[in-house]
Amino acid sequence: MTSITPTIAYLITAHAVNKQLALLVDALLSDSRSRIYIHIDAKTRDLGWLARTSDERIVVLTNRTAVNWGGLSITDAIRSLLEAALRDAGNVRFVLLSGACFPLREPRSVGDAILERAEPRLAVWGRIDATLARNEGLGRYVVTKFHPLDVPSINPKRGRFRALLWNLYKIINNALPYERKVRTDDLWRGSLFFLITRELALHFVAPHDELARDLRFGLASDELFFTTLYVRWARAQNAPLVETDTTARHQAIHYIRKWKPPNRGLFTRLFVPVDLRALDHEGAMEAIESDALFARKCSAEISQGIMARWRPT
C-alpha cells in the first residue's frame, strides 16, 4: 500500500495580484510539500499572472467572494479555501495567510516546524463580555447592533471621508433603542490567522448557522468566528486554552508590530491614512529574530529583505 506524503495547505486571501503576492507564492513553492490555495477578492477583476499559472500545486478559487473589512465575508472566503484544500487527502496542516505575509525562515524549515506541530496554533485574545458592558483590551465589539461592514459604500477602509461617515454612523446607531436577538454568552476574539490540523479544518467548514447568524452583522466578526469555533472545539476536547495578549508581537505563528510614525501633525493624523502595522525594516529584523514563522503586513521590498537573510546570494 502506497503511503501519502503529508503536505501543507497554505490558504492565501488577497485583495490584489501584485509583486508581494508573487514573492510569497514563489517562496512557499520552494518547499515541495506546499500546496497553495488562493482567494482573490471578487472586486479585483484582473488576476494577472494567476490566471495564466499552470503549476498544479496552485489552486486559484473561481467562486470568489467580495471581501470587505470587518465583515463576515472574509470567513466565507476562508471556508471556501478550506473546502478546496480538504479535497486533497495529503493535506494534514492548514495555514491561513494574507497576501502580505512572508516566511521568516527558509520555507522548508518553516514546513518542518508546521508538520512537527501536532496541536493547532491560534492566538486567542479573550472572551467577549456577554453583557457587552465592557470591551477593555478586546477592541471594537458591538454584536447586537447592525454594523453592515460588508457594504462597500460605507467601508471605512476606502478613504478618510468614509471613515468619518462610519464614525458618525456608529454614534447614531449605538444610541438607537433597538437590539438584535443574538447569543453573546460564549463569543471569543482572536487573531484571524491560524495553523490548524485536518480535524479542526473539517470542524471549521461544517455548518455553523447559528454562529454565522449571530455574527452576520456584528462588528469585526472576522476575528470572532473561527476563534469562537476553536475555543468551543478545544473545550469539547478537554484541550488546554492559552490566551495571548492583544499587544503581543508574536501572535501564534505570525509576527506583527504596531508602530508610531514620528512627527505626525494634526492634519496628517486626520487626513493622511497610515497603516500602523505595516512592517518596516526595523520590525523585519525583530521578526527574523523572533520564534514566529511568518511576518505580516509586508511590502515587496520588506519581503525581499527578509528573503535575502535566508537565501543569501
Automatic annotation (TrEMBL):
Cell compartments where the protein resides: Membrane
Transferase found in the keyword field: yes
Source domain of life: Bacteria
Predominant location category: membrane
GO molecular function, one term: glycosyltransferase activity
Any Pfam family matching the protein: Branch
Magnesium listed as a keyword: no
Keywords for the protein's UniProt record, in alphabetical order: Glycoprotein, Glycosyltransferase, Membrane, Transferase
Protein's membrane topology: Single-pass type II membrane protein
GO CC terms: membrane
Protein name: Glycosyl transferase
Organism of origin: Gluconacetobacter azotocaptans
